[in-house]
Amino acid sequence: MKKLGLLTTLVIASLVLTGCNCKVSDNETLNQISLLQGLTLGDYYGSKPIKEVKKLGDTGLGTFDGLNWELIMLNGTIYRANEDLSIEIPSDDELIPFANVTFFDNDLKYQIKHIRDIQELKAELDREIEELWNNRFYFITLSWNFDEMHIRSERKQEEPYKPLVDVLRVDQTEKKLTNVEGTVVALYTPDYMGDLNAAGWHFHFITNDKTEGWHVLNLSFDEGTVTWDFTDNFKLHLPEWKFFKSLDLTVNQEDDIKEVEQGK
Ligand SMILES: [Zn+2]
Question: Would you say 235 and 48 are in contact if contact means Cβ atoms under 8 Å apart?
Fold first, then answer.
């Protein structure tokens, strides 16, 4: 074994002493905090602090404790998109009830053109997945100037929490941006994951200047750069809270999840 130089030893020692933000996950693992099915039943109690989530990935989507607006993670930074669409960087101690994160690898990159709505985008991406392999996870980023970006966010909730589908019927804000430059972060989960997450695509958006963003309901663009990260492994981080343990997760929530992800 190679002997460590004095400098290397000092660097390692100082990292141990200061407590580094070291990554604990590899690039090929999709990490999931809790189940979407817990969130949809009203479990908005955060279980993992942001500083721990950052060790599991640099790209992702999710929400905050109490359903405190939308979470978008890009290049290692977690952003919160607030009610007025403004973006802030939450503190490392804030708790996350649900998120999917991974360390993003650039496995495939190309241009896609003439997308008139989100259904066309999904069809285009699904065609690529048919060729790649539809039984694993994919994260993508999609960057360009979007002609239309229709986005929404749920409002922060107070206890006692109501189910997500009820929240979105009364506490949801929508907005349409036009001619806006930014990045869509999206996750594809295979069909067999339907009891743990929403099977299929889930899209979030943030502008290039990091001033606006939310969950995407619809979009259109003339040309965009899509970058794919192929992810074969999956790790689930279950909350240890009593509330989560009390949930009946055997209830079929397929219709509610569709409504939650795609809107009415
Ligand atoms: Zn979302």
Answer: no
Going from the Cα of 134 to the center of ligand 1, the distance in angstroms, rounded, reads 21
Q: What is the pTM of this model?
A: 0.88
pLDDT in tens, 148-195: 999 998 889 999 999 888 888 888 889 999 999 999 999 999 999 988
Q: How many CA atoms lie within 13 A of 214 on its CB side?
A: 26
Could you tell me if residue 21 is inside a domain? no
- Is 94 within the bounds of a domain? no
Average pLDDT, the chain: 89
User: Is 173 within a domain?
Assistant: yes
Q: What is the 141 CA–ligand 1 centroid distance (Å)?
A: 15
Q: How far is CA 19 from CA 49, 220, 221, in A?
A: 15, 44, 44
Ligand 1 centroid distance, CA of 215 (Å): 4
Count of helices and strands (H, E) across the chain: 7, 14
Say how far apart CA 244 and CA 238 lie, in whole Å.
Answer: 9
Residue 69 lies in a domain: no
Q: How far is ligand 1, taken at its centre, from the CA of residue 202, in Å?
A: 6
Quote the CA–CA distance of 212 and 79 in Å, as a whole number. Answer: 10
